[in-house]
Write a structure and sequence with these properties.
By secondary structure, this protein is mainly α. It has a domain of 175 residues. Helices cover 47% and strands 4% of the residues. It contains 12 helices and 3 strands; from the N terminus they run ααααααααααβααββ. A 3-stranded antiparallel beta sheet has the order 1-3-2, with helices on one face. A hairpin with a 4-residue loop joins strand 2 and strand 3. The longest helix has 18 residues. The N terminus is likely disordered.
Length: 269
């Protein structure tokens, strides 16, 4: 959830290309709408050489495989962990900047081992109330819509401060558990299929989501400087207590299209 108008989000996004993101982004209740490009994502951390990673103990591999991770994912975890421990000046500086940003998604080896659709799937479970699979699918569709509309790679987008779980330690602690969630694998498959235009959009073209107007009003009353512009970009109508550009709602969020609806072009199977 964001308290800024779309033009402000655009300026922050452009600024993030050079500054590494806006540390002043504020969100609430697992929903957010700011955009940023963070050069500290896994694909942008520069190291002089990639050391040969040490293989994890066989027992840990078997445990991870039982938990739902493939052998390839376990191997990628080991490689990501090795890179994260690299002591070159570039790697040390990158880790320091990542720590300053407060984003565990910039350095967590388990997260870095996931592909884009897996990252989006587990992020959607973090965002959905009680990790509800149906609500997660709606959030997941919105993430893909936004990624395609903004042309920000899906993995980069969902690992950015655009989504509140990316900088919450409590959500990082849930990561391993949610990777074993019964819906994780199915959500991952659905995300890939939807991203390629092979599924219908359950959100009606939403690119953002946030909490109910009543919750926003309470947050605004408590911290007016923090939540100062959400009324504008959501088109909030105090007479009806509703958002103007809302596309749908579910048990977790209200879904919006502040800058126009967008859905992947449907490709018939």
């Amino acid at each position: 959830m964001d308290d800024r108008a779309p033009i402000e989000m655009l300026m922050d996004f452009l600024g993030g290309l050079f500054s590494g993101g806006d540390d002043k982004t504020e969100t609430a209740n697992r929903a957010s709408t700011t955009m940023e490009w963070d050069p500290l994502e896994a694909g942008h951390i520069i190291v002089r050489e990639n050391p040969t990673p040490k293989a994890p103990p066989a027992g840990s591999i078997r445990s991870s495989l039982r938990g739902g991770l493939t052998e390839r994912m376990v191997q990628k975890q080991a490689q990501a962990a090795a890179v994260s421990n690299e002591q070159t000046p570039e790697a040390v500086a990158a880790r320091a900047q990542a720590a300053k940003s407060g984003k565990w998604t910039a350095v967590n080896p388990t997260w870095l081992a996931l592909d884009d659709h897996q990252k989006a799937a587990v992020m959607s479970l973090m965002e959905a109330d009680k990790a509800d699979a149906g609500a997660a699918k709606n959030a997941l569709a919105t993430m893909v819509n936004r990624s395609q509309k903004t042309k920000i790679p899906l993995g980069t987008l969902v690992g950015s401060r655009a989504y509140q779980p990316s900088f919450e330690p409590s959500q990082e602690k849930r990561l391993d558990t949610l990777l074993k969630h019964p819906a994780f694998e199915e959500l991952t498959k659905w995300a890939k299929s939807y991203d390629h235009g092979q599924e219908d959009d359950p959100t009606g073209g939403a690119t953002h989501y946030l909490v109910r107007p009543g919750v926003m009003l309470a947050l605004e009353a408590k911290e007016p400087r923090k939540y100062r512009s959400w009324r504008g970009w959501t088109g909030y109508d105090s007479a009806t207590n509703s958002y103007r550009n809302q596309t749908m709602t579910d048990g977790s969020h209200n879904f919006l299209a502040p800058e126009g609806r967008y859905s992947p072009k449907r490709v018939h199977k």
